[in-house]
Amino acid sequence: MTSSNTINRIFVLIIVLLTVSSCVTRKNMVYFQNVDQLRESVERNRNDNLQIQPDDELTIRVSAPEQEATIPFNLTKSVASEAGVGGSVELETYLVSSEGTIQFPVIGVMEVQGLTTTELAEKIRKSILEYVKDPIINVRILNFQISVLGEVNSPGTFSIDDDHINLSKAIAMAGDLTIFGKRDNILILGEEEGVKTYAYLDLTDANVVNSPYYNLRQNDVIYVEPRSSRRQAAGSTNIAATYISIASVIASLVVLFTK
User: Domain boundaries in the chain?
Assistant: First the structure.
């Protein structure tokens, strides 16, 4: 084979490589493409406050002017220090059962599913009035987390200290959308009554605040899909890398065939 034929074949290969490297399809970049296999969005409670669900982990602190009276209602555990010396005492947590209940000291089994933390605090307060005078109850959900993925500046999983968070706050926690993010097609993945569900929200529409999916729930996933321009940019990056490789090959060939 002559050197000219070899070079011609190399140039054909180069053209093929450039064509392939410039094609970054939606299938190659976008997450959750078969989301339509899940149950479509269902009506959620529009209340901002989070509702307690099975498998939630709760802390419940009971306070009162007479602290001794609250001792039976504040279950504690000892936590060793990292140095192995001393340690501290923390409140025990309550895991909500699959039936939506917890076992609370003295009172026994309590139905908690579907209640907000404020509603549960009031329920406990009324239940212990005969044992504690003027009790103050603080309830917190420890495992309230949401995840933000896709075209945001700081994707990740975030723990929420408050008892409610909406889509706008979640995106702000993730550093806002990048210029490549689709603002009119935000995917919310969630779960209702043990069934995985999804909904698409349009952030460019002010009415988005009226969507039942605007207020987020435990373990919701927010996904921001990239625009087509993002895929083109990714293709350009691949082309640049390919050009560098090709330039190296051509330089080597020139040296080889000009000797």
Answer: 3-25+232-257, 31-47+144-226, 57-141
* Choice among 35-49, 80-94, 191-205, 228-242 with the minimum mean pLDDT: 228-242
State the pTM of this model.
Answer: 0.70
CA R_g for the chain: 29
In CATH terms, is domain 57-141 a member of 3.30.1950.10? yes
| Residue 31, amino acid | Y
Q: Is the pLDDT of residue 125 over 80?
A: yes
Spatial neighbors of 52 by CB under 8 A, at least 6 apart, are 58, 96, 100, 112, 113, 114, 115, 116, 117, 120, 141
**CATH number, domain 31-47+144-226:** 3.10.560.10
Q: Contact at 8 Å (CB) between 170 and 203?
A: no
Q: What residues have CB less than 8 Å from 164, skipping those under 6 apart?
A: 48, 49, 50, 215
- Listed in sequence order, the residues at least 6 apart from 44 whose beta carbon sits closer than 8 Å to its beta carbon are 190, 192, 212, 213, 215, 217
Q: How crowded is residue 4: how many other Cβ atoms within 10 Å of its Cβ?
A: 9
Q: What is the pLDDT of residues 142-170, one digit of tens each?
A: 989 999 999 999 999 999 988 889 999 99
Beta bridge pairs of residue 222: 148, 188
| 3-state class (DSSP) for residue 78 | strand
Q: Are 232 and 23 in contact (CB under 8 A)?
A: no
- Tell whether the model's pLDDT for residue 249 goes beyond 80: no
